[in-house]
Structure formats: C-alpha cells, structure tokens
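Holo prediction — magnesium ion.
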Amino acid sequence: MKIQEIRMRHMEMRMKNPFTTSFGTMQDKPFLLVEVRDEEGNSGWGESVAFSHPWYAEETVETNAHMIRDVLSPLLLGKDISHPDEVSEIFAGIRRNNMAKSAIEGAVWDLYAKREKMTLAEALGGTKDKIDVGISIGVQDSAEAMVETVRGFIEEGYKRIKMKIKPGADVEIVRAVREAFPEVPLMADANSAYTLDDVPLLKELDEFNLTMIEQPLAHDDIIDHAKLQEAIETPVCLDESIHSLEDVKKAVELGSCRVINVKIGRVGGLTESRKIHDYCMEKGIPLWCGGMLESGIGRAHNVALTTLPNFVLPGDTAGSSRYWEEDIIEPEVVAVDGEITVPSGYGIGYEPDLKKIDKYTVSEEVFTPETSGAEQA
Ligand code: OSB
Ligand code: MG
C-alpha cells in the first residue's frame, strides 16, 4: 500500500466527569487523530494518547503534532509498504516520541486490515471474540465516596476495579473498599507517587488481597521496584516505566514486576505491543491493556490488542459512555457485564463518525508526498 496522505486533526472533547490522579485533575481532552490514506482512497485511523501537559509522560499534544507534521509524516509519505510492521522500521532512527509514532502506526494497521478484509484483531493474531474489562476510578476525597463509586461500577458489571491512590488517600480507602466488597478483584494505581521510604505503608496493602499495585514508584525506575517487589506480597505492575520490549526484558529479568500494563501509545505502537505480548507469554508474565482516556478510535485499537491470548487480566478499556456524552465512532464501545464484544467489521471495526469528528475538530493539517511538510488546510 502506498501512503498518499496523512491528515492530522486537532480534537477537543470534554469528558463527562473530571478524572483525578496523583498528579492532578483533567476533564478537557485535547488530542490528535491521524487518518492515513492509500493510493486507492482507503483510510485508516489512529489516535495520539498524549495529554496537553507532560505529567504522565514527556510527550504532549503539541510535541506529537510537531513530530507527526515535521518528522514522521515526511518519512512515511510516498512509501510503498506491504505490512504495518515496516512502519516501526521506518521510524527506527527517531528516538522515542512513542505516542506520536503510535498514532500513525495505528492508522496504518487499520488501513492494512481494511485492505486485507480482516478485523484489526485478526490482523494482529487475536484469538478472542469477547474481552474482559475493568474500570479505573480516579482519586476520591473520602473512603465513603470511593466505596459508593466502586459500588456503582460493580453494579454495571466491571470485572475488576482499579482505584487511583496517592499519599494521604491510600490505605484507609483501600481498606474501606475491601471491607465493603470482600470478593471483588481490586487493585490500586499510584502513578509513581511513592518512594522506597514508603515500603512500610505499601506493605500494609498486602492484607487487602489486591490483584496488583500499579506503578507505585518513580516513572523511570526499574531498580527500586525490584526492591519493593521483594519486600511486599502484592504483585507489582509496571505502567510508566515501560516504553519498549527492551524495558520489559530488563524489568522481568530484575524482578521489578509480576504483571505489565501495555499501553499501545507508550510503547510506540501495535507492532511493539505484539512483541511485548509474545515475550511475556513465553515468560509467564500476565498482561492487561491500559487506557489513556481515549476517544473511540484509540479505544477500538485497545479492544483489538486485548484479543491476543496473553491479555489474561481485565484491562482499563471501559465503555465509551464512561467517558463521553457522545463518542466519535459508530457504534460506540459498549461493555455489558464487564465484557466488550469484539466488532466484526474490517479494520478497527467501528466506523469513525465524520459528523461527530468534525464537530470536535478544532483544526486540521493535511500532508502529502508533495507538501511533505506543513500545509495548513
Ligand atoms: O495510569 O493508567 C493510568 C488515565 C490517564 C493516565 C494514566 C492512567 C489513566 C487511567 C485510566 O488509569 C485509564 C482509562 O480509563 O482510560
Ligand atoms: Mg497507570
């Protein structure tokens, strides 16, 4: 397939509810959508999961726009490629900027699957027609608020509850939720809010039978996490620390975690995600698919990835309605009793709703082999 056009849309959507992590609160969600067209007029869609502010990772919407416009699109435009795995090779000389790479690469995967008349799940080698999903709940002000929020999502059928914690809003909140729901699969995500000085506190969590604690220590650490894993019983899961298969190998060899959260954008795309999947499957490290509060386009990619067999734990891919008044795909992603049925349409399997996409588009830029740069549309 020949890459003839890359269209980048600057989107602005607002989530139904604010979402709070150990870093702060977000509700407005600017992000980028990428549409890649081939010589036959087929198109594939991808989403950049970078946020407007670099609190989770160093990339932002603006750095991604720059990379996509000025660096990555010029490398890809006009190229004739036979498989999306080639995209990561074409981008290999560019350091990091994984979310920007992934937005384009994801669009090429969708395009490829559509051309081959396959679902994206099939193109990736996925084996499930339904996936199990959990939900991620932001930091709450009080134990009572967390218990009530958790109750609502258990009633909706989500298969595992993840609570965001931070210093001052941790052990007592987890205790209250565990007492209220003795059997529910529960976990906590600290988004790097603790240090090894907090080992005694993190050890206290052992009594609540959490399925894991996600990224308790620094975003760029794998050494201290190994020390922590030695000291506590709760399995450690890495999120922010993992940007590639190489990072995964180091973490697994060092014993820094027993579980890995795969985010397609954080690791630079579906090709790298699949490599991580295959390695972890061989090593017996269970995976689940994380989320970045995506619109339906990114959500659809997460659904497809989760069909790979070693995604054995419920992910954070909740239904569209958990985030948005209206999503930008048709149909929306729907979770029933904690399961999402994998769509059967070609490519990502959900149709981008152009009317809604236009409604939330602030501006767009179109790149072609001729412009191979920054033509403002
Ligand atoms: O750490 O997994 C995280 C949201 C934004 C940034 C980081 C994280 C999260 C979530 C929510 O936990 C995931 C989702 O519901 O999409
Ligand atoms: Mg996390």
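READOUT: DSSP finds twelve helices and 15 strands in the chain.
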